[in-house]
Amino acid sequence: MKVLIVDDEAPARQRLRRLVDELDDCEIVAEAADGIQAIELTQAHDPDVLLMDIRMPGIDGVETARHLATLEKPPAVIFTTAYDEYAIDAFDAQAVGYLMKPVRLERLARAMRHASRLTRAQLSALSGEDEDTAERRTHICARTAGRLELIPVADIYYFQADQKYTTVRHQDGEVLIDESLKNLEYEFAPDFVRIHRGTLVAVAHLQSIERDADGKQFVVFRDSDDRLAVSRRHAAALKRRLRGS
User: Fold this and answer.
1) Do residues 99 and 168 share a domain?
2) Tens-place pLDDT, residues 59-98
3) Rounded Cα gap, residues 186 and 176, in angstroms
4) For the domain that residue 35 is a member of, what is the CATH number?
5) Which residue intervals of 118-180 are DSSP H helices?
6) Alpha-carbon span 226 to 158, nearest angstrom
């Protein structure tokens, strides 16, 4: 079983390394100090299990797990934590991957045997959110110039299908991501609305719907000069969303 250790504290990583080394059939493939490194190393090494701290700088363990869940073959996640006992109480120890610090060898061995993907309800309890928002990321992860870049969802104007990829237009520019518009719409439906077969726009950034001389409709953004066409099929739903925003 290939293991990736994720913790922003070096002593905690060292302790986990020593413990994992004592387990049969477990191989540590890499260590990460934050969520971004965890995502990069998961893509590079394809681990079976992540031993991951919950509270880390940048994106925390729960947010990192949301990003990993979008992978075609996401790894199992076992959280390690010295906090959030109230959330841990909401889980069944045999069904959820979590370990309280300091981690003990016998508990680690048991957790590794029962390692499984987090469900929406489990993510919900850890993050204090309801199940409808439990898998919704706060950032989009994109690879630019050989590194991973985090784009806050709140800064995104729209997603637009671009052949096999999706363009993400945001406050500081645009990037390409390898995620389908259908999955993005499902995840971010409360905040984004489809205006065309290939376009999702952020309701919070919309200013109005206008018509050109030919009667074609397009959206105007509050803080972007981009103007995007609205299809007849999606015009009514868009207007309802704007009235309710």
Assistant:
1) no
2) 988 889 888 888 878 888 898 888 655 355 434 433 347 7
3) 19
4) 3.40.50.2300
5) 120-127
6) 10
Structural domain tally of the chain? 2
Residue ranges of alpha helices (H) inside 103-223 are: 105-113, 120-127, 181-188
Provide the CB-side half-sphere exposure for 19 (13 A, CA).
22
On whether residue 222 sits in a domain, the answer given is: yes
Q: Domain range spanning residue 14?
A: 2-127
Pairing between β-strand 165-170 and β-strand 156-162 as defined by DSSP bridges: antiparallel
Strand partners, 77: 50
* DSSP tag of 154: G
Apex CA 232: angle with CA 227 and CA 238, to 5°?
65
The whole model's pTM is what? 0.71
Instruction: Answer whether residue 49 shows pLDDT above 70.
Output: yes
User: What is the rounded CA–CA span in Å between residue 145 and residue 45?
Assistant: 20
DSSP 70-118: TSSSPPEEEEEESS-HHHHTTS-TTTS-EEESSP-HHHHHHHHHT--PP
